[in-house]
Amino acid sequence: MGNRKVLVTGGAGYIGSHTVVELFQAGYTPVILDDFSNSDKKTINRINKILNTEVKFFEGDCGNEDYLEKIFLLEKDISGVIHFAASKAVAESVQNPLKYYDNNVGSMISLLKVMNRSDINCLVFSSSCTVYGNSAEQPVRETSPVLPAESPYGNTKHVCEQIIRDFSFSKESFKALSLRYFNPIGAHPSALIGELPIGTPANLVPYISQTAAGIREELTVFGNDYNTPDGTCVRDYIHVIDLAKAHIRALDYIFQNKSAGYDVINCGTGKGNTVLEVIKTFEKVNNLMVNYSIGTRRPGDVEAIYSNVDKAKDLIGWQSSLTLEDALRDAWKWEQTLQK
Ligand code: UFG
Fold first, then answer.
1. Given CB 3.0 to 4.6 Å as the disulfide criterion, which of 209, 236, 283, 321 pairs with 335?
2. Best mutation site among 209, 235, 269 for ligand 1, i.e. most ligand atoms within 8 A of its Cβ?
3. pLDDT (tens digit per residue) in 286-303
4. Which residues are paired to 179 by β-bridges?
5. Are 239 and 276 in contact (CB under 8 A)?
6. Are strands 175-181 and 292-295 parallel, antiparallel or unpaired?
7. Which atom of ligand 1 is nearest to the CA of 153?
8. Is 204 near ligand 1, meaning CB less than 6 Å away?
């Protein structure tokens, strides 16, 4: 879809930065908007290094309507937006729900208002499989029930999906896709960009990498008494590069006028792995040991969730191609970059 200009909010973040790289490589022109509240400015240089170009970036808050309007005016020919910018720490959202509703829902509304005024009618939204909650149906399909969220963070994803859907009903020319991510892991194979957890990581793979690197003494496996093959929780871990590519296919689909209006798509591999399988695979592919022990269950964790992938294949022609081994190798390579 050569040369179309796309605004990427949160484009310096974990999934955002990888998507910017893939967008450029697919012939799009990405423009980054990021306030660096949960990302590092150095990421921009690193993206530029991978791409051997200078990606345009704006520093600011995507909830600021005046600023957004200014960007759309300055960058006259933006034809779509990928909206990543959001707060994403589940535990923090329980402590500070208003921050989450303000940042995630507030900025969604601001963005849609300005897109509407500027007549920009293509949106890809970062959603999450968290909207399925503790689903009895595995793998989950897009038609599986959306259950009450376990956290304010999870609820913001559900609420944003509904806002986008309702808005798309009100404006025929507006097309949007919500991508429901499963568990993104890994990093760019160049080891120039990856996840930058602030403080103690909440997610499994950064915790494993930091334990392997000696930053953390021991990884706690949160419960081994679940009804799963080895008693530990099952998740669908997807390489961040595969996930980034899903955004390009989603944009292509909308720009090729194939989209009817609003839709949701699962972005996973279709395969579930237990926590212990992830640890063992990390140890095997990187030839090292991870110090871990079994602890109690983490409140709010669902037992198992993995994705049905049919709709992604049928609708946007996307499926994952990298393996858990690839992702865990890249995760360790990235951790070693961080240690330098
Ligand atoms: N886990 C451990 N030890 C750790 C960290 C995680 O055993 O130190 C386990 C968890 O209990 C879970 C699995 O590893 O079984 C994956 O945990 P993550 O925190 O990496 O991922 P989650 O599936 O819990 O979180 C994801 C997204 C969130 C989203 C959430 C909804 O990262 O954005 O799903 O459940 F909100």
1. 209
2. 235
3. 999 999 999 999 998 999
4. 126, 265
5. no
6. unpaired
7. 36
8. yes
Q: What are the tens digits of pLDDT across the range 63-103?
A: 999 999 999 999 989 999 999 999 999 999 999 999 999 99
CB 16 within 8 A of CB 10: yes
In angstroms, what CA-CA distances link 212 with 196, 238, 286, 291, 339?
Answer: 16, 21, 10, 7, 12
The answer to whether 123 and 80 are in contact (CB under 8 A) is yes
Place of tokens 């605004």: 7
Question: Is 144 strand, coil or helix?
Answer: coil
Instruction: Reply yes or no on whether 207 is catalytic.
Output: no
**Residue pLDDT, tens place only, 122-147:** 999 999 999 999 999 999 999 999 99
pLDDT of residue 257: 79
Position 2 scores a pLDDT of: 56
From atom 18 of ligand 1, which residue's Cα is the shortest distance away?
Answer: 203
Q: How much is the average pLDDT of 273-278?
A: 98
Beta strand ranges found along the chain (DSSP E): 5-9, 29-34, 56-59, 78-83, 122-128, 175-181, 183-185, 219-222, 234-235, 237-239, 262-267, 273-274, 292-295
Judge whether residue 1 has pLDDT over 70.
Answer: no
Q: What is the pLDDT of residues 277-288, one digit of tens each?
A: 999 999 999 999
CB 31 within 8 A of CB 4: no
The token duo for 227 is 């009804």
Q: Which residue is catalytic, options 14, 28, 100, 153?
A: 153
